[in-house]
């Protein structure tokens, strides 16, 4: 083999290398994250209708780890109970964690007897209810508490962590709302 063909082969490999890296990254990204378009105003003002989000494909369970309170999660539309209240995936905030008691009374939400207010100041709810969560359940609340696409809906109720598709990482569209979400 001549030195010229060896040089051309090395040059060809270096030219293809960025494309191979890009393809490998794209495959990894599709395995770990997914886009999600919010439909509706259930999470307003935090997330608006039509906003495009990047969601991690995180699985939760007692063994794999629990979601954190106030974390925004995606409930798979194919989850048994979710099918009854929505034709699309449900985006909601984790309010109650496994083993906790969630109570709604007098327009306020209580977790184990203490008033629950999100880090960005969203508080309260309508209705009256009290539920003790099992070791695999979480209680989800929408930020627009007028909507009932969350655990307050009797058809959905507390959510099995295994039905959570992932959690919201950040917004990519519209550009004016690009970045992390609280």
Describe the structure.
The protein has 182 residues and is of the alpha+beta class. Helices cover 16% and strands 30% of the residues. The strands form 2 sheets. Strands 1, 2, 3, 4, 9, 10, 11 and 12 form an 8-stranded antiparallel β-sheet that branches. It is globular.
Shape: globular
Largest sheet data: 8 strands, antiparallel
Query: Radius of gyration from the CA trace?
Result: 22 Å
Q: Which percent bin holds the helix content?
A: 10-25%
SSE blueprint and pairings:
Blueprint: H1 3-32, E1 33-37, E2 52-56, E3 72-75, E4 90-96, E5 101-105, E6 108-111, E7 114-115, E8 129-132, E9 137-141, E10 159-160, E11 164-173, E12 179-180
Antiparallel strand pairs: 1-2, 2-11, 3-4, 3-11, 4-9, 5-6, 5-8, 6-7, 9-10, 11-12
